[in-house]
Request: fold
Amino acid sequence: MIREFQPQKIPRPMQVAQLPKDLNFLDIEIGCGVGFHPLFYARSNPGRFLIAIEKTSDKFDKFQRRYLNHKSPQNLIPIHANAVAWITHFIKPNTVDRYFILYPNPYPKDPQKRFFAMPFMKYLIETLKKGGQITLATNEKDHYEEAKQLAIEYWNLDLVEDRIVLAKEQPRTHFEKKYLERGEICYNLIFAKR
Ligand SMILES: C[S@@+](CC[C@H](N)C(=O)[O-])C[C@H]1O[C@@H](n2cnc3c(N)ncnc32)[C@H](O)[C@@H]1O
Reply:
């Protein structure tokens, strides 16, 4: 059983984001690491807007440097924060089209810290528009199976995609590259809100 979400206990982060007024598609990446995926995604999707959040300072600094080197794409905002706190305070219900959670920490000894097992997931799903999607990638079979079960049975999400990332595919993230080079299986799940 997942505990009740208690937003009043979550501190407000410092960094705010100025979103454009004429926003059609809002996407959010949680734990974007050094930022390969957000930069590629923003460039490939000029009609969408991406907020990419990373909490670890040295990874965020690399992402920020890369962002500046890529001439600061107008449709991407890098945020240095805990995504749980940032989304809870700054993202309103029914406003997000897509979430990306790519190779999150699997917390093998602390499974309640995995996103789909967190009380925060209730609010994350509230922030999705109807039909909005969550992509989860992981190289951990247990994590993949657990997330799939919780998403479908506990959070009532629809399964849209359930596939293995092919070794010949262009890796989307730093971790995906590492895992594919090692010959590990990378699972990709996409869920949609009803
Ligand atoms: C295993 S790394 C994967 C990074 C990147 N997505 C990739 O695939 O290369 C997980 C990242 O998520 C970040 N992270 C974990 N929990 C987070 C949270 N609550 N808010 C923001 N970032 C988080 C960690 O700092 C770490 O950089």
Q: What stands out?
A: The mean pLDDT is 97. The first helix runs from residue 36 to 44.
